[in-house]
Amino acid sequence: MVFANMQRRSIGTVIGGGWTGLWQKAKTGAHSAAVENRFVQAFVAKKWSMLLIVMAFLLGRAMILEQLSPFALAFIAVIYFTRRDILHWVGVAAFAGSLLSLNTNTGYLVTEIIVFLLIQKALEKFERSDLSLAPLLVFSSTFLVQLFAELVVSNLSWYSLMMISVEALLSLVLTLIFIQAIPVFTLTRKNYHLKHEEIICLIILLASVMTGTVSWAVGPVTVEHVLSRYLILLFALVGGAPFGASVGVITGLILSLANSNAIYQMSLLAFSGMLAGLLKDGNRLAVAFGMLLGSSILSFYMGTGVDVLNSTWESLAAVALFLLTPRSFILTLAKYVPGTQENLKSQQDYAKRVRDVTAGRVEQFSEVFRQLSRSFKQLTTDDAVSRKEEEVGHFMNAVAQKACDSCYKKSQCWDQKFYQTYTYMTDMMTNIETKENMTKKQIPADWKKVCIRTEQVLEVMKQQYSLYKNDLHWKKQIMDSRHLVADQLSGVSQVMEDLAKEIKREGQELFLQEEQIRNALEELGLSIHTIDIISLDEGNIEIEIIHQYTKGFDECRKIIAPLLSEIIGENVAVMREEMHERGEGYSTVVFGSAKEYEVETGVAGAAKGGDLFSGDSFSTVELGNGKYAVALSDGMGNGERARAESQTALNILQQLLQSGMDEKLAIKSLNSVLMLRSSDEMYATVDMALIDMYNANTTFMKIGSIPSFIKRGNEVISISANNLPVGILSEIEVDLVSIPLQSGDILVMMTDGIYDAPGHAVNKEMWMKRMIQEIDTTLPQDFADCLLERIFRHHHGEIQDDMTVVVARVEKRQPEWATFRWPGITRMERPKTVS
């Protein structure tokens, strides 16, 4: 308990110390950043608040069909839920706008607002208030007020009832639209990604605001026409022809409802927006020219000479406003439009910030684990010497207290002749250390002359030495455990540091390489949607391409992969393909480094006595880091429990290696886990071969296992190592054996049930080499079956022990499609790796 408390205090100190500094820095930086952000947000919020108030004024003045005004109440209802801080100013602005409308409807608007607020307060009292109820509240308020007014003047008819219903329904629809559009102006959007439906709602809101400028004119130029064409120019420059035409249709429709004489504006604005959008790849002047051309053509066709002249002046005024618009405003608008480069860049910037924050956090955790590892290793030699002296002193005090306290010569021995007594005590302890069963006859004569209680002192010393020895044993166990924990923490820290480097590496800008690949593929006539290079490290290439999938031709394996191999200078193959769920005809294909070697495996085995469960376990799996693991484990004994032990050993080792942990540290961690799992003496052998699929270099981890064999032509090579099984000793030494394999090599791994088949009187290694050499087949599964069958025949069909053999054959990979050279394609320049 004392040791546990000390460890908790040390860990708490390290964590507390590590995070306190980080927290203080973060707190200081966050405070300064928060102050700056508050000023910026206050300024921006004030600017948007003024814009919302101006919009409320224009919506209060806006009317359609010369008698319906469904805009103001819908706008105020949404502001009530999203920006209640400016609700009063918005209400006053809408009231002022209604006073200046063509047909004064101020009384209706004020009454509708009051009814809406009363219903809303009643709902809030019963805790039923929600933004989703706003459309129904607006519909009810509008319908009830209009119906009551008609009933008061006794002018209710089927026509008036229909118009009341139309206005109430329009208010409901506009409320739904404003719910989507107004958050863009209220700073409640958390990102720049808007859906196409939200963009349409935003355009409807802006067109509705423009209806508030109907009948405003400066000479022959009408304000609503100038603003509508200005809006078309903005969206045509940002989103191209689709957005330009869409904005033209929506604004033209709404303006024609507000002014029946401007019905032709819908076709004029739609055609102008389409022409302006088609020229967006030029510059502002090209977009302006497209809009002027479109408006002029339809004006000549539909209007008189005066109308053509007025339309031209309106277009020129819109172009002047468009050319004076700051570039920053256009870039901000482009961030909201899906598909634009600015929108993609904003999303990439956000992803890059997330990557940087994640990498920084992982590095912080890595440093914490590294500090914890150092804290466990802070046991120097000086500390060990001082602890040794303290332990010896404690031993002497215990002996003196139990044997000398009641002796009448205590003061003479320990006060007058302290050094002499202490020396004799030390010598006695040394003798007992060398002879634990020391008897009274073996007590030195000099000691008998000095001490009158030699026999009693001897018994006490032997008893205390036994306790002292037991204490040393457990302290050594604790020290070994502490060192093991330190090594494991260091391994975890290294894995997290590698992960942080991997995250940073994925954030590299590879635009030039992506563009080079895109140009090469487009020259071949392939339709490529997006290219994303995740990694260009040698042997770890990962490229993701989204292209139009042509069923039956398989361009990815036949054309794209060979072309990428030629560009990059390394064999590239298709790792996986995934069709998009939507029926857009697109497919996502991931290309990666093609392995230079392939591994084919075969397994054969039998349980002792023909039982169902064997104590042996095997695993053949690709670890994901370019290595292929062939593993075999033999649990102690036979049956289900031995199988569970061996299977656990393989699973733990596989997970540790897949996480990126060093091989030796993974074995030590596995050993400690197996020791802690059970108090029984359970152990397991581990025989694993890690085959590098890029160069065929193979690392053998043989933990208590028997030799493995490599068949290379007619030669058979033996691989062995002297390592104890895992789960026996608290600390084991791991010797790894590295051997380069060649194409065509056959690796044979087996458990002791097969290796011990010839008996003790025969050289097992030579016997097994001859047995392997006599097998002619090169197919791994046939090889394993043939070897197991020969062992059966040798024992006349009797299975004396669990027997398992795993055979793996390494072959040079033959690419499915050869690379080809395309004129003008140059070798790609790879970026430097992030350190």
Automatic annotation (TrEMBL):
Protein name per the record: Stage II sporulation protein E
Entries under Gene3D superfamilies matching the protein: PPM-type phosphatase domain
Keyword Glycosyltransferase carried by entry: no
PROSITE patterns reported for this sequence: PPM_2
Record flagged with keyword Transmembrane helix: yes
Domain (PPM-type phosphatase): residue spans on this chain: 600-810
Keywords assigned: Hydrolase, Membrane, Transmembrane, Transmembrane helix
Species for this entry: Paenibacillus marchantiophytorum
Chain segments annotated as transmembrane: 51-80, 86-119, 131-149, 161-187, 199-218, 230-255, 285-304
